[in-house]
Amino acid sequence: MVIIYSEVFIILMNLEGRSFSFITAMYWTLSTLTTVGYGDIVFTSEIGKAFSSIVAVSGVFMFFAFFLPMIITPWVEKRIQAALPTKVLQPMKNHIVMCGYNALVETLIAELKMRKIPFVLIDKDEQIIKKLSMKMPCVYGDLWDENTLKNAQVGNARLLITNIPDEESAEVVLTASKLFDGKIITIIDDLAMARYIEYAGADLVVSPKQLLGTYIGRRAGMPLSEELIDVTEFSKGLKVLEFPVRADSLIVDKMIKDSKIREKTGCAIIGLWKNGILIPNPDPYTTISQNSIIVALGTDKQLEKLSKLTIDRKRSMKGRYIIAGFGDVGEQAAKVLKEKNIPFVVIDKKEIAGITQVVGSATDEEVLKRAGITDASALIVTLNTDLDNIFTTLIARKMNPNLRIISRANAERSIDKLYRAGADYVLALSVIGGQMLASMITKEGFAVETTVIEGLKVAEYKIDTPMLAGKKISSAKIGSITGCTVVAIEYDKHFIPNPSPEEIIPPGSTLILIGTRDQVRAFEDTFVRS
Asked: For every residue of 172-239, which 3-state class applies, written as one string?
């Protein structure tokens, strides 16, 4: 730029009848660019003055665009870094220290906040700490640094959780084990690293992939016959079961109120899975569509009656299962199917000894054909990338419209895409892992709480509050306020299952209700804590 402006200076000065050397031209150019402007050499023509203005503006632009950031940006970055929280100032005790932030920890944090359990997050990523420090206690620093852990008051903590690369976890565990006597939970990605993390001093090594495989295996193990499955018995013979609605069932495409399920069977519908989404306590106008799943409450006899309404008697459900991908998730799902004596074939690119297998890629239509996709009952998709999971689901759904497809999602943003691709159920690694950790570390507050179906909980409460004692269920407005359903009342030697809305809640009785996690907590906040 200096050279070009100097040449133009010489040309324009010649037009004015003046001659200058190249050194003088450079001197004028640099003086003008830097806005020094000594005034000893000036243009007199209009074009010369216009050129002088262009050179001056160029100099100002260069300063702000190139030189100023070189000075200001490092200064600003240092100021921002200095503003990052490097220490928890308020005293903390019996809290949880979490090392590393990702989607799984985000789920866990939501659970901890809901249960009002104190925690501190440590991370070495400036952007993460800057974003979260206004919402929760955070400490910025190297996770394996002793001072960083001390600044998070780890000595007063009851639990430390590491959720970082496996190799780094070992170093954090070694440091933390010297600083406090609480338990250390390490979340790992590679199961082969588990024993090394335990050697370092971790009390518990957790693999979200392993748990996800178990969940997928359970979800895939829906009934192949008229047997009742996924039974959860929680009180006096009452059970919660899931029933898939087949194409030939007597209630398909009917609204709940028109199906007369309660009148015909005595069962109460407490949930409905539609397109992989759980609808807790569905209203009477909800349609029971093909391949939806009813979550019902009742006794053995009542549930047996319901099974006859939901089973497709024409369609043979004896086909084998297919597992696409045999990593940690797929292997764990296979173990669950084996325990249930469900035959399956595995699709994987690597040869695996001791199992029925088709070698190849599950994204290949010919490989799916060789695995028997057209006659299969269910497909479990547990590939490592969501792109492959989506593509496999699309192909399989096209090849077998009646196939039940259960898929793994590595990222939450892929859940909706997998459902649109044709999956019946999608289970996200981060969500399952976060909820699993929460169930491990949280205390059971005010209720005896049991998970009956993924997403639904049964809770028992001793009633001693005037807001409920002596009132009718309908008058208490438990359902409209919290969304929970009262499934039983127990007092003295009496047990009332599926009580009517006009039933009175005796003082000192035990109220048994069912709802989602948030609904149960809403009941606590409204009727117990208050």
From this structure: HHHHHHHHCCCEEEEECCCHHHHHHHHHHCCCEEECHHHHHHHHHHHHHCCCCCCCCCCCEEEECCEE
